[in-house]
Amino acid sequence: MRSFHMAVQVDSALWAVTFVSEFGFHETRIMSSADFIEMILAEAWLGH
Q: How many other C-beta atoms are found inside a 10 Å radius of the C-beta of residue 27?
């Protein structure tokens, strides 16, 4: 199983992103829209 994340848009500028590891550990972070987009683009670049 690979790690994954789930994201919920809190408002127009904030996202609540929960990261879940392959071992079941999880962490939720509040991210700005810009940070969230940067993270998604980095994952796409790395092929995750």
A: 10
* Cβ neighbours for 48, distance < 8 A, ≥ 6 positions apart: 2
pTM for the full model?
0.75
pLDDT class of 44 with cuts at 50, 70, 90? confident
Who contacts 47 (Cβ-Cβ below 8 Å, separation ≥6)?
none
Phi, psi for residue 10 in degrees, rounded to 5: -80, -45
- Measured distance CA(22)–CA(32) in Å, rounded: 25
SS3 content of the chain, % helix, strand, coil (to 5): 30, 40, 30
